[in-house]
Amino acid sequence: xxxxxxxxxxxxxxxxxxxxxxxxxxxxxxxxxxxxxxxxxxxxxxxxxxxxxxxxxxxxxxxxxxxxxxxxxxxxxxxxxxxxxxxxxxxxxxxxxxxxxxxxxxxxxxxxxxxxxxxxxxxxxxxxxxxxxxxxxxxxxxxxxxxxxxxxxxxxxxxxxxxxxxxxxxxxxxxxxxxxxxxxxxxxxxxxxxxxxxxxxxxxxxxxxxxxxxxxxxxxxxxxxxxxxxxxxxxxxxxxxxxxxxxxxxxxxxxxxxxxxxxxxxxxxxxxxxxxxxxxxxxxxxxxxxxxxxxxxxxxxxxxxxxxxxxxxxxxxxxxxxxxxxxxxxxxxxxxxxxxxxxxxxxxxxxxxxxxxxxxxxxxxxxxxxxxxxxxxxxxxxxxxxxxxxxxxxxxxxxxxxxxxxxxxxxxxxxxxxxxxxxxxxxxxxxxxxxxxxxxxxxxxxxxxxxxxxxxxxxxxxxxxxxxxxxxxxxxxxxxxxxxxxxxxxxxxxxxxxxxxxxxxxxxxxxxxxxxxxxxxxxxxxxxxxxxxxxxxxxxxxxxxxxxxxxxxxxxxxxxxxxxxxxxxxxxxxxxxxxxxxxxxxxxxxxxxxxxxxxxxxxxxxxxxxxxxxxxxxxxxxxxxxxxxxxxxxxxxxxxxxxxxxxxxxxxxxxxxxxxxxxxxxxxxxxxxxxxxxxxxxxxxxxxxxxxxxxxxxxxxxxxxxxxxxxxxxxxxxxxxxxxxxxxxxxxxxxxxxxxxxxxxxxxxxxxxxxxxxxxxxxxxxxxxxxxxxxxxxxxxxxxxxxxxxxx
Length: 792
Known about the structure:
- The chain has a 7-stranded mixed β-sheet, with helices on both faces.
- It folds into 5 domains: 2-119, no CATH class; 250-302; 308-312 and 456-530 and 765-790, D-Maltodextrin-Binding Protein, domain 2 (3-Layer(aba) Sandwich); 335-445, Dipeptide-binding Protein, domain 1 (Alpha-Beta Complex), CATH 3.90.76; 534-762, Dipeptide-binding Protein, domain 3 (Roll).
- Mean pLDDT is 88; it is low at 1-21 and 23-38.
- The protein has 792 residues and is an alpha+beta fold.
- Helix content is 39%, strand content 17%.
- The chain has 23 helices and 29 strands.
- Strand 11 (355-359) and strand 12 (365-370) form a beta hairpin.
- Helix 7 packs antiparallel against helix 8.
- This is Extracellular solute-binding protein.
């Protein structure tokens, strides 16, 4: 320490050998404080520092002091000097105090006459940026420029440097044919420095916008072109871009052309084409003369509604709980003996389509009262004896229509009169009509089996996977009733949102929760939540030897970060009330103490994400399988890849891709299987999947429990505890027993895992506000389709 003090004193006294003394001092200090490994060169007695290139940005900010030849030469990297405004004095006197990098806490002093120059850190950054811009290395220049903007926003010449960077980069990108990035650079330049080469920048901006507009129009992306044109017109109204004037005229001419074509199609009674062209004309030019009048004329002549869907239906079953599309479109084709209209404090609320019902106070008897005078054809043809015969067949084990829960509930059926059928029950049943959600087809009225009884039928001549048209059967009930409902399959939720905003579709059947939140802010769109949530789960569907093991299924569930997938992937970080991770196969309700959640035990928490526990369970299961095979003197079954199937919609795909990735972290091999359009469950004879992602409408757990968990249900569970829970549920005599036994069944399902519960989703639909008659609290999109009307 005495030697260091002596050398510091010598540095102050001796001017002729200043850098030599400095280097000696630094060397001794370095030996005192530094570990014994190679050091970066932070000072030298001669020469100049090496050029670090891009590695400069990895170094600690520093200035460089160069000493005069008279003082011995050399240089040193020092901590940033504390100059007022970071500007060295013009006529310095006295001494300069500084600290050399790597010698913490050791202050050095040099007389100003010994210093030749000082390179400031920000000047070095600026120099690097300028040199790279001059060479056309904009990627390399950007980090230096970014640091300058962040740390030295008041640096002299920075505004000119940044502007030149944007201008030169735009020119470079334009030469490469990168039109969109070129426009982005020019717009940023115009916004940042309006004074920079104003006429040249405006001219370049207009020319680039013109080229990009042409590209979008040629690609058929008129919506994007329209959006860009509207933005350019607003943002540069004072610059009067030639491109804006040109394309406003072009769009007007295109709109006029489509309007004229729409009128020709209207006169030829090709209303589908006429509507399409008229809407496109109005979208291109909202204030097009005669455009809105033409659209209204076509609506009056042939009311038609376009519906955006994530899945078109290939089967039409209005009571299907695992197939959203089949349930939605099935409502158009078929009526159901009892149709669910919503949820009440004691289960679902149902309408008897042929009239009214009466229940005895002891719930041991109920009557179906047919009211033909209040029923529209063909439903008015129903007779009591036929209805009684249908109900009887459902209670006969030898008949194809046999339904075990109904057979267990009903004791006898009596025909009270031509329009009244009575049912005597074996025991009090809280909701017997829920057992009678039976599709009604034309065979009930002397027509062919499977013939429609709803207002619409599919147009087989215009049917494909992406567009399905449902045309009105018979005469319209009102002049404004849609003659046609067109289901258009969207490639994704975002695609559906874009088409709804453009007016290409009038309704979106199902929204991502995040899209629903964003769309709700649009003044032209109405977003409504369905009153009943859907339950998402994974259902084993093959004889995979490991999938049948409860320990293995537990490992799979512990290996899924359900909270992360739901909140991050599906909700995109936005909060949506009612969307939550579940611990069982029944809905939890949307609000606290929601009667919808009467089957869900809130005390049972969902299993957390625990990959170490999942791996342990997988190892335990392998050992169990090994021991079992040894007892049977057989070889342990091979662990084949887990085939995870999902419906062909974007939400299911996103969820299953995330699940697959997390299972692979456990060491499992997973194969994703996308089901054909319209299918939500693999056919058993195909053996294409081991487990399938299902979104189920478990709206009435008292009857849906068997449809989900029973031997004939989705899970096809043969578990004795599950079977006992289902039988005890069906023997319940009042709502208290129903709730208690459903909670027991929830606990059994949580323990046995016949299905792997994932989460509950609250789905939404959206429609353009000019579509009226949607109704409120509808559980199915087409519940009031006959009342839809496109407003004026």
